[in-house]
Amino acid sequence: MNTSPDRLLADGPAVILVEPQLGENIGTAARAMANFGLRDLRIVKPRDGWPNESARRAASRADHVFDRIRVFETVEAAIADIGYLIATTARPREIVKTVRGPASAAMILRGHAVAGTPTGMLFGRERIGLTNEEISLADEIVTLPVDPEFASLNIAQAVLILGYEWRRSGLASEEEGLRFQTPNPSRPATKEELVGLFEHLEGALEAVTFFRPAEKKPVVVQTLRAMLAKASFTEQDIRTLRGVIAALENRPTRPRRRADGSLTTSREDPGEGAA
Questions:
Q1: Phi and psi for 215 in degrees, rounded to 5?
Q2: Residue 109 in contact with residue 118, Cβ under 8 Å?
Q3: Percent helix, strand and coil across the chain, each rounded to 5?
Q4: Can you say whether residue 9 is alpha, beta or left, with left for phi > 0 and alpha for psi between -120 and 50 degrees?
Q5: What's the whole-model pTM score?
Q6: Residues linked to residue 85 through DSSP beta bridges, in sequence order
Q7: In a designed cystine with 112, which of 106, 117, 177, 212 is the match (CB 3.0 to 4.6 A)?
Q8: What's the pLDDT tens digit per position in 25-40?
């Protein structure tokens, strides 16, 4: 069965919960789906019946997912329109099927959606998961790299992980999908500005007789410059550091421009450096 790829990509794979026991798990699964752009939630025989107010409360305003929930009596009915289905399990089964991790499975799901094939992800009961008969209905198995000593996940946690990988599979990079990006820094400092920092710091250290004995000053200066050069300062970094040094010198912190174009934070007349 083929459907519009645009619609399949917009809704994402169907999430099918088989006989969930708690309404809260249904609601938190819906919320996890909303976080990562999944909209088609299907439930097979929820233990506590339907509708379920506990589920709606737990969905935490993921109404665009929750209001579309469909309830089915059998797994077969819930997956009838799906062309490619993965089944999730935390333990090995005696079924010969390809086993994938979540990232690989998401890429396969997206590929089928792009081709116009409806896809789905099958999640089992809280206590016992999926039966072998239910897993046999799937095309492939997905399992997560969990600690084998504690492999059981809450349903909503499993949905969240698969939903995250689904969304990530449609991005050129992980950073592309972030809600905000690293602020643009100021431009890199020029060598003139870096040398100005060197000279300002060295002058301040000279004033407090830091270079002792005097004959070791060239080596110490060379070491300081090498250390500072590694930092890849921006223009703003240089201005901030020179302000710090000027404050420690108890002098004006804003550099002023001399007549020859150079910068200074000294109390000398701005024109004095031109001679």
A1: -70, -15
A2: no
A3: 45, 15, 40
A4: alpha
A5: 0.69
A6: 120
A7: 117
A8: 999 999 999 999 999 9
Phi, psi of 112 (to 5 degrees): -65, -40
Task: Show Cβ contacts of residue 152 under 8 Å, excluding neighbours closer than 6 positions.
Answer: 90
CB atoms within 10 A of CB 181: 8
Q: What is residue 41's three-state secondary structure?
A: strand
What's residue 256's pLDDT?
66
State the distance between the two ends of the chain, measured CA to CA, in whole angstroms: 86
Residue 59 CB: number of other CB atoms within 10 A? Answer: 25
Q: Which of 12, 38, 35 is nearest to 110 (CA)?
A: 12
What pLDDT shows up at residue 273?
Answer: 44
Looking at residue 189, the DSSP 8-state letter turns out to be P
| Token pair listed for 63 | 């109404």
Residue 121 forms beta bridges with which residues?
Answer: 15, 86
DSSP H or E segment with residue 162: helix 155-169
